[in-house]
């Protein structure tokens, strides 16, 4: 349970204002895991458990069962049960929990990012080292590339079995390594530039609640949506768009800014890059076709000149033929 404005921990608070920034809060803004926290009477410290689904005590409890004085959602002191650290209380991304195999935890995390990006980023602690987010993104890229390479690997394998290409495996390894290198370097610069631009735009349009690290967490964990790139045919576009949508939602929730402002700040960079890439591609196409047209014009002009020269030469030859008898006379 952390302050929505400044991320300060709100366990043990006796009032409903954050001791750090002074913002008011209400227990109804939070969900709790049953059995992990107790709601204590402010008068005698008698603790009661919450009830599902929110994990809070029912709102109709107005009297302490132990001392009989007034209790309620505005009065309870919320504390982790004895022996539990505050870190273990806040829900984590599935990949960092201990339930199930690594693959099931990884895909549960990806699913959360795809379906509920705002909930996903609220499970990322603000002070979490950024390398964890980078590692998660790198794993996603590796899995996406590996799955994307399966058809090529299959073709090479078939080629090897029938003995038609003995060099196939080496070529395949070189292509794979090259692709990894290009994608890795491109992704790194893309993410750094995108995060910086988003963060700067957030600050120009009114500021953000947290540092650049939070924006980068949104962009990197939003990158979990890149896994949709394994879908045949439309995968590339799908992953690009889904990454944008996920990260926009994560920036809004993670930096506690309005959805419109988050959309503007987050979408501006990729759209600019998209327009720039498309624009330079079109310009390249025009330049090449323009060059071709110019060359064709020059060629046709040369041809015409040659034809004209030939015509004039044959004309003069004919004249010579006609003139020559006259000269003899
Ligand atoms: Zn606060
Ligand atoms: Zn009491």
The helix/strand class is mainly alpha
Largest sheet: 3 strands, antiparallel
Helix content: 55-70%
Rg, Cα atoms, Å: 34 Å
Brief characterization of the structure:
By secondary structure, the chain is mainly alpha-helical.
Features of this protein?
mainly alpha, 2 domains, 3% strand, binds zinc ion
Structure, described:
Helices cover about 60% and strands about 5% of the residues. With about 325 residues, the protein is mainly α. The chain has two domains: about 1-90, no CATH class; about 95-275, no CATH class. A three-stranded antiparallel sheet has the order 2-1-3, with no helix packed on it. A hairpin with a 6-residue loop joins strand 1 (about 35-40) and strand 2. Helix 3 (about 130-160) packs antiparallel against helix 4 (about 170-205). The longest helix has about 70 residues, at about 260-329. It is elongated and about 130 Å long. It starts with about 35 loop residues before the first strand and ends with a helix. The model has no long low-confidence stretch (mean pLDDT about 85). The structure holds zinc ion (2 copies). One zinc ion binds near residues 5, 21 and 23.
Compile the SSE list and pairings:
Layout (H helix, E strand, L loop, with lengths): L36 E4 L6 E2 L28 E4 L21 H14 L1 H6 L7 H32 L6 H37 L7 H11 L12 H20 L4 H70 L1
Antiparallel strand pairs: 1-2, 1-3
Bound molecules: zinc ion (2 copies).
């Amino acid at each position: 349970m952390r302050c929505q404005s400044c991320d300060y921990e709100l366990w043990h608070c006796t009032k409903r204002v954050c001791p750090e920034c002074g913002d008011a809060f209400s227990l109804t803004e939070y969900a709790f895991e049953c059995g992990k926290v107790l709601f204590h009477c402010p008068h005698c410290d008698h603790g009661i458990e919450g009830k599902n689904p929110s994990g809070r005590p029912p709102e109709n409890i107005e009297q302490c069962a132990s001392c009989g004085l007034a209790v309620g959602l505005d009065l309870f002191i919320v504390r982790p049960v004895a022996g539990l650290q505050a870190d273990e209380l806040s829900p984590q991304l599935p990949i960092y929990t201990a339930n199930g195999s690594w693959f099931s935890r990884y895909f549960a995390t990806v699913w959360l990012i795809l379906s509920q990006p705002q909930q996903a980023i609220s499970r990322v602690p603000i002070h979490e080292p950024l390398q964890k987010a980078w590692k998660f993104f790198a794993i996603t890229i590796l899995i996406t590339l590996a799955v994307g390479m399966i058809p090529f690997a299959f073709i090479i394998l078939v080629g090897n079995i029938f003995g038609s290409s003995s060099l196939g495996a080496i070529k395949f390894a070189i292509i794979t390594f090259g692709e990894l290198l290009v994608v890795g370097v491109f992704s790194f610069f893309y993410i750094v530039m995108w995060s910086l631009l988003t963060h700067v735009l957030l600050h120009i349009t009114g500021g953000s609640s947290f540092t650049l690290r939070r924006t980068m967490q949104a962009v990197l964990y939003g990158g979990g949506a890149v896994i949709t790139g394994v879908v045949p045919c439309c995968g590339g576009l799908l992953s690009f768009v889904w990454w944008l949508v996920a990260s926009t939602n994560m920036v809004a929730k993670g930096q506690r800014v309005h959805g419109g402002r988050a959309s503007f700040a987050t979408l501006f960079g990729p759209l600019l890059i998209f327009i720039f890439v498309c624009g330079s591609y079109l310009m390249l196409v025009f330049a090449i076709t323009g060059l071709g047209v110019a060359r064709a014009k020059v060629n046709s002009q040369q041809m015409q000149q040659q034809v004209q020269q030939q015509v004039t030469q044959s004309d003069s030859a004919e004249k010579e033929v006609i003139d020559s008898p006259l000269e003899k006379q």
